[in-house]
Each structure stands twice: as structure tokens, then as C-alpha cells.
Amino acid sequence: MTSHIVPLAASHFTPLHAVLDAVAREKRFLAMTQAPPAEETMVFFRQILEDDRPHFVALLDGAVVGWCDVLPVFGQARAHIGVLGIGLLPSARHRGLGRQLMASAIEKAWLQGLTRIELTVRADNPNARALYERLGFEHEGLQRNGFRVDGEYIDGHAMALLRYAG
Question: In angstroms, rounded to a whole number, what is the distance separating the alpha carbons of residues 53 and 44?
């Protein structure tokens, strides 16, 4: 199988929405348990392109199988911060694509002047936490009952990667 990490393009919108929905419906990795409506998601994707935000997709044999983005947080005093989001279809996991996606998104975030990237990972996702740690993210705190899925509470770990302005 041939894999590629490429910047988000309009041609990825529809398949990426399907990937987002599939990962969300696993109810194990994302804050959402299903993707927003397609029209809403397309507006979101178009805004990412318009604003030139760090957003990359993983392709396996030409098919979209995952994404990683670093999106801004609210407020002028926090304009130096981005929040990392990532997801891969089950068939695309454990192939190094997550690391490649994150490296691309992080590099572009640094080039755009961000100096802090945050994320939250569920406590029941040790594989993702280990990946984040390998890429330099540090644990900053425990978010007790940070997620609730089907009535079950799950803790979250707040993590961040810093790049100090020189």
C-alpha cells in the first residue's frame, strides 16, 4: 500500500467527512460521537483552507484514511496556541501515519508562529498518549470525568508541546 501525507484540499472534503464520522462513531477517540452534518463540516473545511490552517490528510492508495490539524483557540491573549486534533480509520492505524500527520501539522503550526500546541487524550487511550509523548508532548494535568460516553465517565489527560519564541 502506498501512503502519502498531503495538505487538505477541497477534493478531500467529502471523504474526510466520512472518515471523521467513522472515527467519531467508535466513541473511543474524539470528543464527538458522530460528525456534524455534512454541510456544516464543509463550511468548516472551507474556512480551514481560506485561513491556511495546518491541516493534513493521510492517503492510502489514494483514499483518505485520516487527518491531523492544529486549530486556533479563542482570544487574542491565546493567539499563540493551537489545539491538535487527529484521527485515523482502524485499517490505517499502526502504520506510522499518525506520527507523519502530526509532524506535518506541527511543523506548519510552528512556521505560522504558534508557540504552544495543546491536546486532550482519553485515559483509556494509552497508544495515543505514548505517541504524543514520543513527539515531545508533556502531561500537564488530569481532567477527571473529562469525557462522558454512553453514561460512562472517562478521565482525560491535558498535554502540550511548547516551542518558545526566540
Answer: 11
Please identify which residue in the block is written with the cell numbers 505514548.
130
Give me the percent of the chain exceeding a pLDDT of 70. Answer: 99
The type of residue at 9 is: A
Residue corresponding to grid cell 484521527: 87
CA atoms of 82 and 72, how far apart (whole Å): 4
Residue 157's CB: how many other CB atoms inside 10 A?
A: 21
Look up the pTM and report it.
Answer: 0.95
The one-letter amino acid at 110: W
In degrees, rounded to 5, the angle at the alpha carbon of residue 1 between the alpha carbons of residues 125 and 88 is 25
Domain count for the chain: 1
The CATH number of whichever domain residue 121 belongs to comes to: 3.40.630.30
